Task: structure prediction
Amino acid sequence: MPETKYQLAELAQEIAAQIQGDPDFWVSSLATLQSASATELSFIANSQYQKYLKTTSAGAVILSPADLEFFSGNALIVDDPYLAYAKLSHKFAATQSVGVGVSNSATVDPTARVSSSAVIGPGAVVAAGSHIGDNVVVEANTVVGEDCVIGQGTHLCANVTLYSDVKIGENCLIHSGAVIGADGFGFANHQGQWEKIAQLGGVRIGNRVEIGACTTIDRGALDHTLIGDGVILDNQIQVAHNVQIGENSAIAGCTAVAGSTKIGDRCTIAGACGITGHLEIASGTHITAMTLVTKSITKPGAYSSGTGMLDNKQWKKSVVRFRQLDDIARRLKTLEDMVIENKGS
Amino acid sequence: MPETKYQLAELAQEIAAQIQGDPDFWVSSLATLQSASATELSFIANSQYQKYLKTTSAGAVILSPADLEFFSGNALIVDDPYLAYAKLSHKFAATQSVGVGVSNSATVDPTARVSSSAVIGPGAVVAAGSHIGDNVVVEANTVVGEDCVIGQGTHLCANVTLYSDVKIGENCLIHSGAVIGADGFGFANHQGQWEKIAQLGGVRIGNRVEIGACTTIDRGALDHTLIGDGVILDNQIQVAHNVQIGENSAIAGCTAVAGSTKIGDRCTIAGACGITGHLEIASGTHITAMTLVTKSITKPGAYSSGTGMLDNKQWKKSVVRFRQLDDIARRLKTLEDMVIENKGS
Amino acid sequence: MPETKYQLAELAQEIAAQIQGDPDFWVSSLATLQSASATELSFIANSQYQKYLKTTSAGAVILSPADLEFFSGNALIVDDPYLAYAKLSHKFAATQSVGVGVSNSATVDPTARVSSSAVIGPGAVVAAGSHIGDNVVVEANTVVGEDCVIGQGTHLCANVTLYSDVKIGENCLIHSGAVIGADGFGFANHQGQWEKIAQLGGVRIGNRVEIGACTTIDRGALDHTLIGDGVILDNQIQVAHNVQIGENSAIAGCTAVAGSTKIGDRCTIAGACGITGHLEIASGTHITAMTLVTKSITKPGAYSSGTGMLDNKQWKKSVVRFRQLDDIARRLKTLEDMVIENKGS
Result:
């Protein structure tokens, strides 16, 4: 990996920044304020970190006009330093040599159509009837089932599995271990045994979607499971059959969404939440970590469940009292009646 | 995928239904009441959906005698429409071309026995001493470890991993990303370091078991981990070493079951639950979503833990008070004593 | 798998045990007290199981001096029978035939360096610039990205995925389905859309680390994600970008650790916990199952959150009252004021 260097002026242009200091300063890479060296560019996105501006060894810093007074070195001045950092980060990413064309050890069905600009890695499989678009990368040992469509510029990392009838838009990134299109958990109980319901729907994923490692998105029972444009899903998320996730919503790791629930646009759902089935979550809703959602949310806002962390001994006491809560409330009411009666008498 | 069509009379016969309307009506596929077209068959399994019977475009509907009065079109009349839908769903499932025989790029150890009717997909591996039964499908890039046995009609989807000594019964379906037989989490602490305990047991899985995507079932420490006949496990479930799951139990996604816990027959465990180790859960128990189970359950019933979802501000207030619960209860008791004393005086 | 047998005297030597009974007794394998046969060796690590000493059919038992009086058969006497069992367990583990050298169907980049004593299984991929150390095993269909380093004696099970720039120490064991080095969940929100932040850091894993099936460890945003020596991670754990886990800490299945959190040494974190980002957890902390950690822990101890499991009907009542908790506490205060005032009057 040869290092790529950029001069401050070039980087400033990318993010429409004003420059303080030397526009010819060479930036070797990006780093945090605490760990940056004299050739590195850092950023400050939160005023809590102003203290590090005094001590940082960074050769240059991306900062907002408000933080400028605390730093006299080379600087790129923008309104949103975090966004600027996000944009510049891609210039310093190592380029992976994904190869070209179809690997010798890949298996591509004769009826599949693969763009000549696509890359199919070693051991990857593309099944019958699938269409792999321009500049798509299918990394090693990834399996694309039948009748899938992968839009241009989409990247399937290694060891991804797509079942049949999964259609993914353009410029998506699907991380390793993700499984898309497995059967939804649909069974009818018949005299104590489970009769499987064939899952006839597929999965439809929009453009610019990122799906994390080991995240699972089941195919629909009858209609499709739908993931909107710009959705970002972290690792180990479970999306059940016929779930719909609206545009630009973000879900953090290990959250589970049960069947047929519709999540609106621009929702932010923290990690390890559980959302039960057949709900509707209003656009713009925020759900905090490890919340159990069992009712639809019609009004955007922030929602939570659970209890705060306590020392184990104190917690045990609270847990015992939680059991008694209804009794406690009733006793309080009785006492209120008595005292008020007593007062009145 | 050529579409398969069936006449209503043929479908009626499959599910022992009475027909209302035209027995020669051609059904092209299955759909929900809301989305069905004029050639599609729908169903109503819940009287809440009766309103859709009036407006559905479905060409035919599976319904119960009780709902018949609300629908005058073509109908298949059965006592359990959901079960009937489950049974008919398989007739409309697209047939995947899984190929025949052993793929050129598969690796099958010379000491493995593979039925001539089995399919071993591209890149799949079958290790020494394993036995792949009749009509078994091992999809692409799935790895079957040593000395495994896969019963007839069982289907391993792509990118499944079986470690050694995993024995799976007949007609099971194991979804992609599932890992069966990895080491249980067994370690002895020795002066602050972890001494690994070799996991000498295997995994034994019954017949007609379905295991979801990215679900992990660890091998036993000494005895085997046991999954009974007819068990259904959703995605991303963790089953630790020496767990036993009784026949026809169902577990929804993201639930974790810790080591040596025995779950009885016909239990239904919702998603994202945590069940600690060395417990016994009575047959027929139902556990609601995201419940933490830390004690054995001897009496079947429904069990829950956690708190309901609240607006974040209100929740924070409750969380503060949860910490004070023991104090609140004690103060209530004091007050009760005072008031009763006061009254008595 | 030919069975390996050992005489009691040989096993005693391995664990520095004193022998009661016949030193020439042949041990065929290990088993629990309840299931051991007359040729098997068992152990008792918990005095709760003393009752089984009377009825066990085990041919020999590992026990502590305190339990010796309850068992007159062949015995290996040690101070820590569980540790002794852990050590002996490896002698009875079946040897897997992992093969030798690089499998014909593996793909190794010409610029990768692979030790002649390493094993690269069928379908495995080793990308450019990576270094596979002595006696390393890379099992079937595992993918090692670019510029990775795998230290000697480390074992990657089947279907593991390492992205680029993942460095793993010596004598580690990485289970199937694990994904190490996928992008952290880093995005800047720009006018309602998510701007991806390139994840420039890698992952650094120490020596003697075990990582469970389908566990995901993301690469760092700028610095590396760090896993210390001797750490043990169970299945389906999510470790976000820039997390640091200190030496000899243990985390049970399905726990999620959000970005940049630092977990100290020798922590034990139970299953299904959620730990939010940018926290510090003191060395030696214990967190019980399914706890939500949203604040740093500065003092080692045991911590918990959540509520205990209840019968669903009782639970619903408590949940309703949990919502009213702030009101209940305020009403109690009012009543206290009234009663005390009343008393004082």
Q: What stands out?
A: Residues 312-344 of chain A form one domain. Helices of chain A lie at 8-14, 50-55, 81-89, 312-323, 325-344. The mean pLDDT of chain A is 95. Chain A touches chain C through 79 residues (CB under 8 Å).
